[in-house]
Design a protein that fits this description.
The chain has 391 residues and is α+β, with helices and mostly antiparallel strands. It has four domains: 45-57 and 306-390, conserved putative lor/sdh protein from methanococcus maripaludis s2 fold (Beta Barrel), CATH 2.40.420; 61-70 and 215-301, Elongation Factor Tu (Ef-tu), domain 3 (Beta Barrel); 80-102 and 182-214, Beta Barrel (OB fold (Dihydrolipoamide Acetyltransferase, E2P)); 105-180, Helix Hairpins (Orthogonal Bundle). The protein is 32% helix and 34% strand. The protein contains five helices and 24 strands. It has helices at residues 2-40, 106-137, 144-180, 230-238, 381-390, and strands spanning 45-51, 53-58, 61-69, 72-75, 81-86, 93-94, 99-103, 182-184, 189-191, 201-202, 211-214, 219-226, 245-249, 258-265, 275-282, 294-300, 303-311, 316-318, 321-328, 331-336, 338-343, 346-350, 358-362, 373-375. The chain has a six-stranded antiparallel beta barrel. Helix 2 (106-137) packs antiparallel against helix 3. The protein starts with a helix and ends with a helix. Residues 306-366 form the Multidrug resistance protein MdtA-like C-terminal permuted SH3 domain.
Length: 391
């Protein structure tokens, strides 16, 4: 009897459980249509689009570069003397031949006066020796003594002429030392710091730098690129002309690059880094590039004539690789792509696209494959309904 009671109780509990599950499932089925219908009533996501472009596009090799001057001249004294005047200011732009410093040259000027007097005396002696030579030349046929006197006069005249030439050389040397006392710029450029002031004594043997002049225009940018680009670079250099275009992007105005030309390719690849060193020359009249400055550069070895590209912002990355969203009607459609390279703010891709395909640029992170989307310039239907309901 007890066993029959337990069996009856188990059947009642099972029936109650089955009934409860049936009631719960019916409630879920009744609510399911309501949950699925809610997204359909939301407005489409506003996006901006752009046509997929096919056409010429430059190949850009991006790198970090260092601005270096073509030449730096250290101004050093060529004679000993005390600094009398400093005729320039630190950081000043100078032209070749501009005076920079003057040294005390009074000692050399006094020495020059003495040497010029010596030269005048020796020129007088030369004149007398030449007169004697002419006189004895007319008597040379009158005997042995006359011939001997002629030869002596000839030697005296030659010796006097040599003394005069030596005096002239000494005078020229002293005049040059006086000229060296006025120190001038050997090239055009910008002055650096000036460590010496009037009153300092400088010696040629001490090899002390009085100033530095840095050439600012033109200027060089040195950078390195991976060796896989070596073939493209060599082909561009072999094509002749002025060399491949290089654009430099100064930090203060990256949207207005400076354009130059590639002028140097190193003779060997760096085996430690796998890169090749390059140099580009830039006209730098407004002095936008400063020596020692680190900047971004873009080397353009050639222009690809038929490149398929989309804005870089349209490119998305997923678990299956890169893709873009196309706007077809009012729906976003996912389209897988293969990225070739990035250039000029655009992504060069490979994929199956038509000339009329439009990729979603702004709002691509908010849409899903098959989701509703609308161009920002066109008002969404859901937005119209919301606007009418608020009136």
């Amino acid at each position: 009897m007890a066993r029959a009671g337990r069996i009856f109780l188990a059947l009642v509990v099972a029936g109650a459980g089955a009934g409860g599950w049936y009631w719960y499932q019916q409630r879920l089925d009744a609510q399911a249509p309501v949950q699925q219908a809610r997204p359909a009533g939301l407005p489409p996501i506003p996006v901006t689009t752009e046509l997929v472009q096919r056409g010429p596009l430059p190949i850009e090799i991006m790198a970090n570069g260092l601005v270096v001057p073509e030449a730096v001249v250290t101004v050093r004294p060529r004679v000993d003397g005390q600094v009398e005047q400093v005729l320039v200011e630190e950081g000043q732009m100078v032209e070749r031949g501009d005076p920079l410093f003057t040294l005390d040259s009074r000692m050399n000027q006094a020495l020059l006066a003495q040497q010029e007097a010596q030269l005048a005396r020796d020129r007088a002696l030369l004149s007398r020796a030449q007169s004697d030579l002419v006189r004895y030349q007319s008597l040379r046929g009158e005997g042995y003594a006359a011939q001997q006197r002629f030869e002596q006069a000839q030697a005296d005249a030659a010796s006097a002429a040599a003394i005069v030439r030596a005096d002239e050389a000494i005078v020229s040397q002293t005049r040059l030392q006086i000229e060296f006392a006025s120190i001038r710029a050997e090239m055009s450029g910008r002055l650096g710091a000036l460590p010496l002031r009037p009153g300092n004594f400088v010696r040629q043997a001490e090899n002390v730098g009085m100033a530095t002049i840095t050439r600012m225009d033109p200027i060089l940018v040195q950078f390195s690129v991976p060796e896989r680009w070596l073939g493209e670079i060599r082909a561009a250099m072999a094509a002749g002309g002025e060399g491949p275009v290089v654009r430099a992007f100064p930090a203060e105005s990256p949207d207005a690059p400076v354009e130059g030309r590639l002028v140097f390719v190193d003779s060997a690849v760096d085996t430690q880094t796998g890169t090749i060193a390059l140099k580009a020359r830039f006209a730098n009249a407004p002095v936008r590039l400063w020596p020692g400055q680190y900047i971004r550069v873009a080397l353009i070895p050639r222009i690809e004539p038929d490149a398929l590209s989309v804005p870089a912002a349209a490119l998305q990355v997923g678990q299956d690789g890169r893709f873009v969203f196309l706007l077809q009607g009012n729906q976003a459609k996912r389209r897988p792509v293969e990225l070739v390279r990035m250039t000029a703010g655009r992504a060069v891709i490979r994929g199956d696209f038509a000339a009329t395909d439009r990729v979603i640029v702004e709002g691509a992170q908010r849409v899903a494959d098959g989701g509703r989307a609308v161009e920002r310039s066109a008002p969404a239907q859901g937005s119209q309904r919301i606007s009418q309901a608020t009136r």
